[in-house]
Design brief:
five-stranded parallel beta sheet, mainly alpha
Length: 992
């Protein structure tokens, strides 16, 4: 724990005068006045800033403001302004300053009394008083364990600082207060950083702590926090190196050893103390209260029966307190009511879990079960963890998840699990927490779980459920018919609910009418068996009662592979208007055959989707309509994605080379709306690509990858984009379609480039170039050459890169593609820069900026500014370089290009180091490591190398060497030539 920051003592008079009331009785003029001392000394009346005069006049104002309304005598003020050597006319000067201030300040603010002066300040009207109040509230919040609120309040207090306190104010009193306020601010920062680490925000803290230790090298508490942050970020060698650097610095500067706390931390790191690696809570977004997720779906109002199961499971869950963990796993066939029972039990037991309830549908019965790491990311966000603090790997996310639940009582409902392997990383593992799991399979290999096998309802329970939905009056008069209905449903709850819902919606039907329909075996499966076949029979009951238009919609919409469908996409599949489509979908929701995932989005239960496809194969006439429906969906996604592409890249002729679609896509009002749509539909788009790689859809599917390339560049789902692209390459090669294969291989190479797999990218581009020769495709020709230039830039072959890029520029100019021409000019600029042709490099980058500006491009303008920043840096125009790179990083942030954002921080770090500002360089390098960069592990090694050089400049040699050793390991494994440079840095003679 960091020492509690002490509120700075304000100067108190020897006379012991007491402050007057700070709020009560103040006239309106005083109430409307505000003052600041945590920066320049300033005054406002309302929204108008007042002129506070000369430095000495501001010194008098500051001395009075810091007395908290108390009266200061003339002699006390003279001592505050001049100390032991006042001028001969000091008293007259004080009176003159007071007179001038009185003329500037509102009436009643500056008061003369008893031969002295005081400033009347309303409550909260002085920024220092606000900071004191915020710190007091933060200390109280932390005392009751609400770290999120405490961090928020401390950050609000720190935000009140506006540079150096009492800036430009002369006098011994101002100097003393300046030092004291500066020290208090640093204590507040340490306290907030300590809380950052307590809630798991270690990755973000490293960057700030690196800069702070450089600015305050002898402050051991900052070193201790940095060691802990590095250790929790998986950088143990660097954490130990910080200790070695600190020990050496203290011995050289002060002749002392590190304090015991620092020594103890070093030993705990050496011993890999498990308690050291686990923060006490998840890293939160700054919020005003503890995040308590309440994700349970609504329980059905007509829940029926299952009393013994409800009691059994409720008892187990309510007994979770004091136990390591309570896990109950429900198994049964589809439609037997596992989810309904689990949700009902969770609601019954929720009072035993006051810290929240988490829920997820794991989609275990489908072809694409939810990945545990994806689910953990969603859970961590629900628990208050910032996106930037969520690690990438499954193991790290699981560890942070367990840490987030430590000390909390949370119920986790894992619905529709595939198997125990999918569930294990999602279990809380903490005392007081519990998990409830549903699955089609019995989880006998889930250690410690209480297993429950759920069978069909009893006839009595089934009839009661049917009665509650249909109404007692209708059922009582036709009890035998009702029994026939539930028997025909196989006593499966889902089947009963579907049949009863249809009857309830048709007031002209009798129960006997429904029973007669269900008695017709031609409308059900020929043979009713256990397991999945029973589920299919259940769905047959509902399907057979659909109107023709509903049945068609049910069949065709089930063909799409994505996790859900938007209303617009569904309208494209059905070839209907959005209004007609919505009516059909809502009617299917009423029958429980389709779920409403969110407003305007619809999905199938995985088993219902399989049944819908079976119906399509059996009933859709002519059979070509199935292919036509999927073709319409592909057209919709391609046309819409092409519009997003055109908005983001005005002047890029890529959209002119895409396959022509028969359907139009969505219209977008602005770039933000377009970009949001693309990312919201990412999973559906990539699923559609992989589903459409047959003969008729191949080229359009490949072009959809081209139009949606932003998905690969965002870093969010680049792995899934790569998977779809590889599938497209294989399908095009099998089909012998040179044009489609060439485009797919360029797209794959672009992905490989971004993750630093340059050799593999080069291979794909060689194939693409050969294919372009055969197909004559101008898009593949220009883009393959451009990507080859990028690859060779990355592997330090600028001469080869220049050759490719000059050809690329010619190809783009021949195609009239100015946007892509600008991209190639940027890449050529970097190649020439590597060859030392700095002035030409600057010129090319500026040409690219001109083109992008003329085209009205904003997103790609960032790449040109990034390129110009690199060239200006090599020209030793560091201030101009920083301006361009800072503009670039802001554009990348606005367009969610995380990898490019991180890469630009790396380049800023390079410039800062060249500028001689090693501390700032280290801070930006740490940001690059936390965010990630284009170029994958190769670029990570470069960032570590630069970070080491920055730390060496700051005399943190041990930590510098730790960075270089990690970088060297990455580069040697990749066989990268940069390894030799890092070895030279590690050689003892090169580090002084």
């Amino acid at each position: 724990m960091v020492d509690v920051p002490r509120v700075p003592e304000q100067w108190r008079p020897a006379s012991g005068n007491t402050p007057e009331g700070r709020t009560e009785g103040h006239p309106p003029e005083v109430q409307a006045s505000r003052f600041s001392v945590l920066g320049p000394v300033r005054a406002w009346h309302g929204t108008d800033q007042l002129q506070t005069g000369s430095p000495q006049q501001r010194a008098l104002l500051a001395a009075l403001l810091l007395r908290d309304g108390r009266t200061a005598t003339a002699s006390e003020l003279i001592d505050a302004l001049w100390g032991e050597e006042p001028p001969s006319q000091a008293l007259a000067a004080v009176r003159t300053y007071a007179s001038r201030l009185r003329k500037v300040l509102p009436s009643g603010v500056l008061v003369s009394e008893s031969g002295g002066y005081s400033i009347q300040v309303a409550d909260g009207a002085l920024d220092l008083a606000q900071a004191e109040d915020l710190w007091a509230a933060a200390e109280k919040a932390r005392g009751v364990g609400d770290l999120r609120q405490a961090r928020t309040l401390v950050n609000e207090a720190l935000d009140l600082w506006d540079g150096e306190p009492l800036a430009g104010v002369p006098g011994p009193y101002a100097e003393t207060q300046r030092t004291r306020l500066g020290e208090w601010r640093l204590q507040l920062v340490e306290s907030r950083l300590d809380m950052d680490l307590e809630v798991g925000c270690h990755a973000e803290a490293v960057s700030e702590l690196t800069a702070l230790t450089a600015a305050h090298p002898l402050r051991e508490r900052l070193r201790e926090l940095l060691m802990l942050a590095l250790y929790r970020s998986g950088r143990q060698a660097e954490a130990l190196a910080v200790y070695a650097d600190t020990r050496r610095l203290l011995a050289d500067e002060l002749g002392v050893d590190p304090r015991p706390g620092l020594k103890e931390l070093q030993q705990r790191i050496l011993q890999a103390d498990p308690a050291l690696a686990e923060p006490s809570a998840p890293s939160p977004e700054p919020t005003g209260k503890l995040v308590r997720p309440a994700q349970l779906p609504a329980t059905v109002p007509d829940f029926t029966g299952r009393a013994s199961f409800v009691d059994e499971l409720s008892d187990i869950l309510s007994a979770a307190e004091g136990r390591v963990m309570a896990v109950s796993a429900l198994a049964g066939i589809g439609g037997v009511g596992k989810t309904t029972l689990a949700v009902h039990v969770a609601h019954v037991a929720r009072t035993h879990f006051p810290d929240g309830q988490l829920y997820v549908d794991l989609q275990g019965a489908g072809a694409r079960a939810a990945e545990p790491e994806t689910v953990l990311g969603a859970f961590l966000r629900a628990l208050g963890t910032a996106d930037s603090a969520i690690p990438d790997s499954l193991e790290e996310r699981a560890a942070l998840y367990r840490s987030a639940l430590d000390g909390r009582r949370v119920l986790v409902l894992l619905d529709n699990a595939r198997d125990a392997a999918q569930v294990r990383p999602l279990l809380p593992g903490m005392e007081g927490c519990a998990a409830l799991v549903t699955s089609r399979v019995r989880m006998v290999d889930l250690a410690g779980a209480h297993l429950v096998d759920l069978d069909v309802m009893s006839p009595e329970e089934a009839l009661l459920l049917f009665t509650r939905i249909v109404g007692e009056e209708r059922v009582t008069s036709e009890r035998e018919a009702a029994l026939d209905v539930v028997a025909a449903c196989g006593f499966l709850p889902l089947a009963i609910r579907i049949a009863a819902s249809r009857l309830a919606a048709r007031r002209t039907w009798t129960v006997s009418t429904l029973a007669a329909k269900l008695a017709d075996e031609r409308r059900r499966l020929d043979e009713l068996q256990a397991g999945d076949l029973a589920v299919k029979a259940t769905f047959e009951l509902g399907y057979g009662q659909l109107e023709p238009a509903q049945a068609r919609a049910f069949r065709l919409l089930g063909l799409a592979d994505g996790p859900d469908l938007s209303l617009a996409a569904a309208a494209a599949v059905l070839d209907l208007s959005p209004e007609e489509t919505e009516d059909l979908l809502e009617s299917l929701v009423d029958t429980s055959l389709v779920e409403s995932a969110a407003p305007g989005r619809y999905r199938y239960h995985d088993l219902v989707r399989l049944y819908a496809r079976a119906c399509a194969e059996r009933d859709e006439q002519p059979p070509s309509e199935r292919e036509a429906a999927m073709s319409r969906l592909l057209d919709f996604y391609l046309a819409s994605a092409a519009r997003v592409y055109a908005i983001e890249r005005p002047g890029d002729r890529t959209v002119d080379h895409l396959e022509v679609t028969e359907r139009v896509g969505l219209d977008f009002t602005d770039g933000t709306t377009a970009f949001d749509w693309l990312h919201a539909e990412a999973s559906c788009i990539l699923a559609c690509v992989q589903q459409s790689l047959g003969r008729t859809g191949l080229r359009r599917a490949v072009d959809l990858l081209l139009a949606a390339k932003d998905l690969a560049e965002s870093g969010a789902i680049s792995h899934r984009y790569e998977t779809a692209t590889r599938a497209a390459c294989a399908a095009a090669a099998t089909a012998g379609d040179a044009l489609a294969e060439g485009r797919a291989r360029v797209s794959l190479a672009q992905v490989l480039n971004k993750v630093g797999r340059f050799d593999a990218a080069a291979t794909e581009l060689e194939l693409a170039a050969a294919l372009a020769t055969g197909s004559g495709d101008p898009w593949t020709t220009g883009n393959a050459l451009n990507e080859q230039g990028i690859v060779n830039n990355c592997i330090n072959r600028p001469e080869v890169s220049e050759t490719h890029l000059l050809k690329a520029i010619d190809a783009f100019r021949a195609d009239g593609n100015r946007h892509s021409e600008a991209s190639a000019l940027c890449n050529l600029s970097r190649a020439l820069l590597a060859m030392g042709r700095i002035h030409k490099s600057i010129d090319l980058a500026r040409q690219a900026i001109t083109i992008y500006t003329d085209l009205g491009v904003t997103f790609r303008l960032a790449n040109a500014k990034y390129t110009l920043g690199l060239a200006l840096s090599d020209a030793n125009r560091h201030a101009d370089a920083l301006g361009q790179l800072t503009d670039a990083v802001q554009i990348f942030v606005e367009n969610r290009q995380r990898l490019w954002e991180g890469t630009t921080h790396y380049r800023i770090a390079q410039v800062e180091l060249a500028y001689g500002r090693a501390a700032r360089a280290a801070q930006h390098a740490e940001q690059a490591l936390a965010i990630g960069c284009v170029g994958g592990e190769w670029m990570r090694a470069n960032v570590l190398t630069l970070l080491g050089r920055s730390l060496a400049e700051l005399a943190q040699l041990d930590r510098a060497k730790a960075c270089w050793r990690e970088a060297l390991a990455i580069l040697e494994e990749a066989g990268a030539p940069e390894a030799a440079r890092v070895r030279n840095l590690l050689h003892p003679t090169t580090v002084t």
